[in-house]
Amino acid sequence: MDDVLTIGKQVLASQPFSLLLHAELLYFSQGRAEIKVPIQPELKQQHGFVHGGVISYAADNALTFAGGSVLGPGVVTSEFKINYLRPARGDFLVAKATVIYSSKTQAVCRCDVFMSEEGKESLCATSQGTISKLPETPDSRTED
Amino acid sequence: MDDVLTIGKQVLASQPFSLLLHAELLYFSQGRAEIKVPIQPELKQQHGFVHGGVISYAADNALTFAGGSVLGPGVVTSEFKINYLRPARGDFLVAKATVIYSSKTQAVCRCDVFMSEEGKESLCATSQGTISKLPETPDSRTED
Amino acid sequence: MDDVLTIGKQVLASQPFSLLLHAELLYFSQGRAEIKVPIQPELKQQHGFVHGGVISYAADNALTFAGGSVLGPGVVTSEFKINYLRPARGDFLVAKATVIYSSKTQAVCRCDVFMSEEGKESLCATSQGTISKLPETPDSRTED
Amino acid sequence: MDDVLTIGKQVLASQPFSLLLHAELLYFSQGRAEIKVPIQPELKQQHGFVHGGVISYAADNALTFAGGSVLGPGVVTSEFKINYLRPARGDFLVAKATVIYSSKTQAVCRCDVFMSEEGKESLCATSQGTISKLPETPDSRTED
Q1: Mean pLDDT, residues A28-48 taken together
Q2: Is C101 close to A123, i.e. CB distance below 8 A?
Q3: Which positions ≥6 away from D128 have C-beta within 8 Å?
């Protein structure tokens, strides 16, 4: 019985980069998506914190899934902006994205990224971006 | 003989996430930095293009290095914004960042990300962000 | 008896550009600010909608006031990003800003801009930005 | 003989808000636009500098004109991001925008805003954004 979350998990599992980062889709429904990334040693920078690139990956991907939840699977992130708030460490990251507004072709979404350390979540980054539906052509492809 | 590029390469080599992505510092001087990321299969999304998270990593890191070239090594990316322009594929990415303006504590930088395919470079993303100097305290740490 | 809102109204009233636009501070407290801009004919673009520059003014200023509510009066907007969602028209705009995170020197804030038409509010833009405390020097000045 | 600049000037002159700010289109050609805003007392904030909202207006509008130069007149600014670099003062602002990339429906543009004081220009803000072509329907309208 394929529900929305199962389909979303299959999409995430078909992204080699998401597999490399062991990302997991925690939640996926109309207008919302949550992606978890375990904080493993290879995701860090030179001072032991999570690399900003991992945080931006999590934000970008959760934004895309949130947009895709209202626009359909053929979507790309057109642009996004992120503010890093705190150095991230702990057990895992969770990027929580919601759709703020959507038209037929675009969705503007917001995503907060939390770090979880010993069961306590703190906000470590916040982002906002535009997800665009790809034109429906035989060779249309999603970017990420 | 440690020149600026050599020191920059050592910083990049001390970032486990940059090692995971096989990133390489191509150029590093006062106000400029270029980072190369080979396009390997594990950096892709479900349609064979480079995952947006890899592109944002390259932009973020090149922005940080450019900012660090004028502010010193103890810096973090406070925020950035990226527009994805084309699906990225080919042999490698090169993120080219320059400092637009800097004060004692911050630098505003711009970064264009190119994909290189059979020797031909095309622009695939453009970004802009703020790099901040960390306060000089005994426990100050860079974020990425 | 000068409360926080009264002080905020005095600051807004000392901005000639805010007077030109007849902006009004509706709400001002720790971590929150709301600014209203009546939609008058001279604030429009060529198709009868509110000019994007008016919407970005409202967002920028509400972001600055929200940041100032936690950092003190000597603040500037360092940067912000805005997504326009719908053409704006109606009786007035209200920009509602909240602080997402603050340190001693910076606050990251979010602002939604609503249009009000015949008593009904709809979201017409959403924005996110960084407010910075000015260094405490004799000649420190706020930017906006 | 209507050239491109003349047509652009007519568009700007049909924007009441641009008239209120005495904005002038200095340059307009395929992929480029420059808008000048004289620094008059009513455009300032409480410390005598140009209000950030004026700078963001100039950036937003120059971005839109640059996008319109390649996409046609029916365009809107979908989103943009701006970094303020220096408090602005002097005789006038000039916002200089260029198209970085365009497809059939969108253009990603960059805009630097300069202040001119006694004949000397200095960069006071830099911005980046997306301009979108409106769908060609009978009632399509530009936002700004």
Answers
A1: 97
A2: yes
A3: B81, B83, B126, B127, B128, D80, D81, D100, D108, D109, D110, D111
**Res B1: pLDDT:** 44
The nearest CA of chain C is from the CA of A109 a distance in Å of 10
**Residue A107 burial (10 A CB sphere; 0-12, 13-18, 19+):** buried
- Nearest-CB residue to A126 (from C83, C85, C128): C128
CATH number of the structural domain spanning residue C18? 3.10.129.10
B58 inside domain: yes
Distance of residue B70 Cα from the nearest chain C Cα, in angstroms: 19
Closest residue in chain A to residue C82, using alpha carbons only: A128
Looking at residue B50, the DSSP 8-state letter turns out to be B
Q: Which residues of C touch B78 (CB under 8 A)?
A: 106, 130
Which residue segment(s) compose the domain that B84 sits in?
4-133
| CA–CA distance, C78 with C81 (Å, rounded to integer) | 11
Whether the Cβ atoms of residue B116 and residue B91 lie closer than 8 Å to each other: yes
pTM, rounded to two decimals: 0.94
Residue B143 lies in a domain: no
Tally of structural domains, chain C: 1
Residues of chain D contacting residue C46, judged by C-beta atoms under 8 Å apart = 11, 14-15, 142
SS3 of residue B114 by DSSP: strand
Within a domain: A138: no
Alpha-carbon gap, residue C97 to C109, rounded angstroms: 7
What type of residue is C14? S
Domain assignment present for residue C28? The answer is yes
The complex scores an ipTM of: 0.92
Contacts of A108 in chain D (CB under 8 A): 79
